[in-house]
Design a protein that fits this description.
The protein contains 9 helices and no strands. It is mostly helical.
Length: about 200
Amino acid sequence: METTESDAQDRADMARLAAGHDAALNDLMERHATPLFRFLCRMLNNEDDANDMAQETFVRVFQARASFDPNKKFSTWFFTIAANLARNQIRWRTRHPNVSLDAETNPGDQPLASTLAATGPTPKEHALTTERAAAIRTAVNNLPEDMREAIVLCEWEELSMAEAATILEVTPKAIESRLYRARQILRERLKTWLN
């Protein structure tokens, strides 16, 4: 199995963590916190939930440190934990509908960085870009869960179909099929933005 430098570091940190060197978790967090948070934001469409689930993911990594298989790729194992937590959170939201699913569209809920004046695009260009991004987010969020997961993992997180298949516990062919169907749906829903 091909091992990248990052994979080797992850495996070494997991070995240290399993041996009782709790500080190794800090190294894992430093490398993986940002991609994890981005992934969870895209899956959950809520920064607060994403932050909570990111913390919970690292708690689960710590709790399962002794059961990690060093022959497996850490990032695949790690994102499987995160994806399962995200699914649980989405199911929880379904059972508790009083939670607003479109809270991020309220102006007060935008991160400060997105509201600061930019020197680049004009206000009109910025508005169009923001509208397009919102339309894409909405279209992706309205996909069936299995297709949304495939799009987020393969398109936004840039994982291979094989890695996404491992995380979602399906075959690479199933991921390919989900991506194909999701892209068809998105193309139809976003056709006004594609012109």
